[in-house]
Amino acid sequence: MRQHKLRVYPSKETLNRQDQLAWKMAEICTDNATIKDDVIDMVINRVIDNASVAIAAANRRPVASARSMALAHPRAGGATVFGMPNDQKFSCEWAAWANGTAVRELDYHDTFLAADYSHPGDNIPPILAVAQQMGKTGKDFIRGAVAGYELHVDLVKAICLHKHKKDHIAHLAPASAGGIGALLNLPTEIVYQAIQQAVHVSFTTRQSRKGEISSWKAYAPAHAGKLAIEAADRCMRGEGAPSPIYEGEDSVIAYMLDGKDGQYLVTLPETGEEKRAILETYTKEHSAEYQSQALIDLAARMKTKITNFEDIKEIVIHTSHHTHYVIGTGANDPQKMDPKASRETLDHSIMYIFAVALQDGTWHHVDSYAPERANRPDTVRLWNKIRTVEDAKWTEMYHDQDPNKKRFGGRVEIIFNNGEKLVDELGVANAHPAGAKPFKRADYIRKFDTLTSEIITKDERNRFISLCERLPELTATEIQQLNVQIPIDKLINNKRDQKGIF
């Protein structure tokens, strides 16, 4: 690995493009390094994982709306849209928009947490859509996905966006642009410009994840993927980008991040070195914000030692800075304690999540968020007894540079009315690579079967899983079939409508 020192360069100080972060990112996308079997296997797992959560969300309003927009952009030889028949193709940027929204809607696919947050699986929809439209093979797609994951994880390790209230799609868009460049085997110069364009247009604020969280939380990564495709297209036509995008006097570091004196250390693979960052990412067993995964498992464990929830006086969750301030009481969001809050808001309330998981001993992607569940009086009473506090020990473990030592959970104290306490802790979710039951291929397929049950046919299930498991061998024709079809009568918004502008 190589370390790149990143800082602001005044306009009077020349920075050669070969020394810019965007160029170094482009170099590793275009080096055609060897990809080992364990990395390929994880790409397959994540394609299955993305499809499972996308199909489960297919008829939710944001996903149906995004699909409607895609259906207004048919294109012969284009890309497929989740749920739609494989013989219907659409412009790849709009297919990526629809598919990216479907993947993100339930907040149920993979994650990587370090200096910032990320869902690296969000790279797959735009890269796959371009692969389908451009007639690329399974091997080409894997090369693109591996590069997208590498850039995304490397940026998330080094640069905190949340500190400056910037949304984490600012790391996703350049990763997707680089992945598309790797997929298409573009020259380094073009990938460099595409990454810069993608960075420039993707900085947005974190209000999308604050207060009353709306459907934009699902749309945001799809928007980043669409921006990445458009950036690559422009640069393939010979267009350039604002440069240097990270280091410029009026650019990202200077005005979006730590300011003119800001410095970062970004670790990237050497040119020609294997890209293995996808193996550091982890999926979700439960449909909720990743920092709640271990706490859901812990709640289920602690439930077995509680006979009467009304005997609880208070629950204190000692956890990391990020968990406390993003999904805990440190966020100071009254909506996180509101039984009438949106699903997106409840998904970002560890107080609600822990209360329901403690009472039920499990978590369900639909039932646990149902209005009748959120408004249950005994749940509301318990919910309001829960608070979070930041614990320096958990914050330190959250940021540990060794992926085997990272911890995302917390220590929970349940205090009863009689003064007794029940105390337990869990650092990583059961499904985490370092957890009690790490997810393997069979678990990804089981998750797919659970989420798509009664939505797709058995034949469709078998067809799709078979394609996924042969991903490295897929021809361009087969890649164009790498989509999950839902019987058309079960899919709302399955025809072009006249509700919007398109």
TrEMBL record:
InterPro entries: MmgE/PrpD_sf, MmgE/PrpD_sf_1, MmgE/PrpD_sf_2, MmgE_PrpD, MmgE_PrpD_C, MmgE_PrpD_N
GO molecular function: lyase activity
One Pfam family here: MmgE_PrpD_C
Span of domain MmgE/PrpD N-terminal: 20-261
Gene3D superfamilies: 2-methylcitrate dehydratase PrpD (3.30.1330.120)
MmgE/PrpD C-terminal domain sequence ranges: 286-467
Protein family: Belongs to the PrpD family.
UniProt xrefs under PANTHER family: 2-METHYLCITRATE DEHYDRATASE, 2-METHYLCITRATE DEHYDRATASE-RELATED
Protein name: 2-methylcitrate dehydratase
Organism lineage string: Bacteria, Pseudomonadati, Bdellovibrionota, Bdellovibrionia, Bdellovibrionales
